[in-house]
Design a protein that fits this description.
This protein has two helices and 17 strands. By secondary structure, the protein is mainly β. A hairpin with a 2-residue loop joins β13 and β14. The N terminus is likely disordered.
Length: 253
């Protein structure tokens, strides 16, 4: 009986984060003819962090579908930098979130797959919470001047990049020009980030306060390509046009 017990133990320790969960959102851009307006909104609002791009309000040169998936393309025409920021119309609480994407390379690029608290965008003043108190989950951030490094972070009122203490980790890959998978296993008391199916960063809830752990509300998804700013740094004009290609975004609950 030793061998079957050993096999059972191995299976339990290697359980997929999708096990016991159902696919509730499947935006597979490789199988779509157009970007779904029932799933996504083109957010052409203001930019932050000293970024240089202006986001477009619809599909076109800066957001289109190809055989590889969704292409978010940053362009620079006469000093006017345009890019795309897509925001999911739905929001979810807990579950497993995954995207497969290829990041651009070059000084100034800043692609991201991330989430914000739905209370940030509500018009109900009683429920609205501003950043950073609302919370932010960075499932993947990357900067073109260091393309091998992928950043995984949790931001909130007590822990964010503007303070001496923050919750973040950088994991390096050997081949940044390939498509990679970025995952998030979000549970009530723990959040685990994945890179290509392997655990990259684990954060457990140590303080049961909203300021330390606002990850108790539904969050919505954002995919975008920023240019320049506090994290991406100086811009090399040779990067344009720059493409962030996303095969799919999926959610299991």
């Amino acid at each position: 009986m030793i061998l079957p017990m050993l096999i059972t133990h191995i299976l339990l320790t290697q359980t997929s984060p999708t096990a016991g969960r159902h696919l509730v959102f499947n935006s597979d851009f490789t199988k779509q003819k157009k970007i779904s307006t029932s799933d996504w909104t083109f957010d052409d609002g203001p930019v932050y962090n000293g970024e240089h791009e202006k986001y477009v309000s619809g599909p076109g040169e800066n957001a289109y579908l190809s055989k590889e998936g969704l292409v978010i393309k940053a362009t620079n025409k006469g000093g006017k930098i345009l890019s795309t920021r897509l925001v999911s119309k739905k929001a979810w609480k807990y579950g497993y979130y995954e995207a497969e994407a290829q990041v651009p390379i070059g000084k100034g690029t800043w692609p991201a797959f991330w989430m914000l608290n739905d209370r940030l965008r509500t018009s109900d003043k009683a429920k609205h919470v501003d950043w950073p108190k609302c919370g932010e989950i960075d499932i993947m951030e990357n900067v073109g001047f260091d393309p091998k490094a992928y950043h995984f972070s949790l931001h909130c009122e007590d822990y964010n990049w503007m303070k001496p203490k923050q919750r973040t980790k950088i994991v390096n890959v050997t081949d940044p020009v390939k498509f990679h998978k970025y995952g998030l296993d979000w549970r009530e008391n723990e959040i685990v980030f994945y890179l290509d199916g392997k655990e990259a960063y684990r954060v457990k809830k140590a303080e049961d306060t909203f300021n330390a752990w606002p990850f108790r509300d539904p969050f919505y998804i954002i995919v975008n390509l920023a240019i320049g700013g506090t994290m991406a740094g100086p811009i090399d004009d040779k990067i344009f046009p720059s493409k962030f290609i996303v095969k799919y975004v999926k959610v299991w609950q």
